[in-house]
């Protein structure tokens, strides 16, 4: 995918002005077993409040633009030992580090987290003018700054996110509930800052916690709220990232997520319209914010392809060709509009041998309230037959309710007919974050555990042609066929593997439960080989050495070049464990981190028009790090959310990008290209299912049960 010459690509990342960096001083923490980032971050916050100046925890040091004696710092630490012993008990002392030298990362961190916050009142005031009223709620705009190093230079990204805020605050809403436990799982935002998170615990009435909360917070605004709040007001615990905070409910606003719309009786169409920002609108929201930061002398103009062409890389420059290989070894360009036609013309890449002499046996489970699905099934048969298969509809079961008992009886009856796949018709439309008793999860748990592929069709999509095409593709792949593979295999790998850990925090208590490690293994042409599930409990987010080794057995990975996609960051010692294992078995493991959130966005401009950049456009931070526009959203009025890609030498980031772009072409559950490569696509869904016991009896297999 080329960047047209008439277009200029830019990114919401701004080089730091060298003149804005003051003389910096560093301090080292002497710690026991405590998490240095947690202690350092909280100590920096308190030192800013107590001693003045700017203090930032970065790269293992406390960094400040003011030189303070160790005695003054330790006086603050002494107070924290008393106030927050659980956090600071392992902090022995703080010492000055006279030999320390700053780095581009430190400078970027200092501007993003030390200097720009001075502008926060003005920045928040600017964005308050951009609120959009939606009746009982409003769309709130929030800015976020992050530090980066671009080609060895410090830089800062300035991004805008939108969130839906209910006009009724959390205190008012809580007073309408029969049980305060109904607050658990809701998201809320601090009225006085940009902090947000999930309510994970009801602490109790303020009268029991006022003194402690006043000691914990150093912000005068929040202290004033706590002092004025009545004794009987509820205190809740908020989980934000890996940190937890306690608030009185009157200090919080309700963030309404898409899955909460029905609960608060808000229109999904209105919400989507308000939350989705086309590139031109989003860019114009950022402009006054970035102008203010530029006027303060902290950053210069954003990186763009006219002034910095070397950091913008089109997909074509790394050899990416969106081509697929079908039956009879025929290659065609990957095009969702012509995919079914290409399958008809060329045939499937690999047709399962079990259908060479018999039809695909389809059983039907119908839970819709309205008329039967005969018309849809007729069209489904017609499409499948056009692709060279025969179809037998071998039986139908109707269920009046979606209860587990009714569903289990129906699926037991259908399973006795030995279907290749069960097609289920459900009322309504898919529900995000459906709980485990929801009809979809009940169906998946019953079919997956029996080893029977299942395909769900929702009432509201019955008449949509794209839905029919998706279901045709899904049915054929779930019963063992391979519709298509990559036009050309990846030249730098023998296998490609996606790994992830499924985990979930406890719903009613702070903390988390650990779940399963999952690996999905593909040949270098993108053909699925098998999955492996490690089903023993795991401690924490890091995959232990032994588990990693079980995911990469010697007989399959010996002497192989393997590209490994990690959904998110590698944790703890995972990288080194994989390198050690590869060395022991004579393999070469190329490690690639694919981070889905928090990545600055890219734009394309032509004259005064600002739109989406081409698929495959990348902003290259270094030889091992880039932002990648992997797939464009289906709507032109939406701005792509790039992936943050990090590779380990000797694999170059261009090769990591190539592997990701190539494997976005191979999703068999939909004609529309996914944002993530198939190695880690649906990781969230697989995790959700695994945590609820929805996984096959066999913990290794060659059928993608998650489709």
Q: What would you note in describing this structure?
A:
The protein is of the alpha+beta class and 707 residues long. The chain has four domains: 18-102, Alpha-Beta Plaits, CATH 3.30.70; 168-266, PAZ domain fold (Roll), CATH 2.30.340; 351-481, Response regulator (Rossmann fold); 488-694, Ribonuclease H-like superfamily/Ribonuclease H (Nucleotidyltransferase, domain 5, 2-Layer Sandwich). 29% of the residues lie in helices and 27% in strands. It has 20 helices and 33 strands. The strands form seven sheets. Strands 15-30-31-32-27-26-23-24-25-33 form a ten-stranded mixed beta sheet, sandwiched between helices. A five-stranded antiparallel beta sheet has the order 13-12-11-10-14, with no helix packed on it. A four-stranded antiparallel beta sheet has the order 2-9-8-7, with helices on both faces. α14 links the parallel β20 (421-426) and β21. α1 (36-51) packs across α2 (70-83) and α5 packs antiparallel against α10. The chain is globular, with a radius of gyration of 27 Å. The model is unreliable at 506-513 (pLDDT under 50).
List keywords for this structure.
five-stranded antiparallel β-sheet, 4 domains, about 700 residues, ten-stranded mixed β-sheet, about 25% strand, Alpha-Beta Plaits, Rossmann fold, about 30% helix, 33 strands, PAZ domain fold, alpha+beta, 20 helices, globular
Question: How much of the residues is beta strand, in percent?
Answer: 25-35%
Total of helices: 20
Query: Which overall shape is indicated by the principal axes computed on the Cα atoms?
Result: globular
Gyration radius (Cα, Å) is 27 Å
Regarding CATH, which class of the largest domain?
Alpha Beta
- CATH architectural name of the largest domain: 2-Layer Sandwich
Largest sheet strand order = 15-30-31-32-27-26-23-24-25-33
Secondary structure: number of strands: 33
Low-confidence stretches: 506-513
Query: Helix fraction?
Result: 25-40%
> CATH superfamily of the largest domain, called what?
Ribonuclease H-like superfamily/Ribonuclease H
- Average pLDDT confidence is 90
Give me the CATH fold name of the largest domain: Nucleotidyltransferase, domain 5
Whole-number total of structural domains: 4
Could you say which structural class the secondary elements and strand pairing correspond to?
A: alpha+beta
Largest sheet: 10 strands, mixed
Distance between the termini: 28 Å
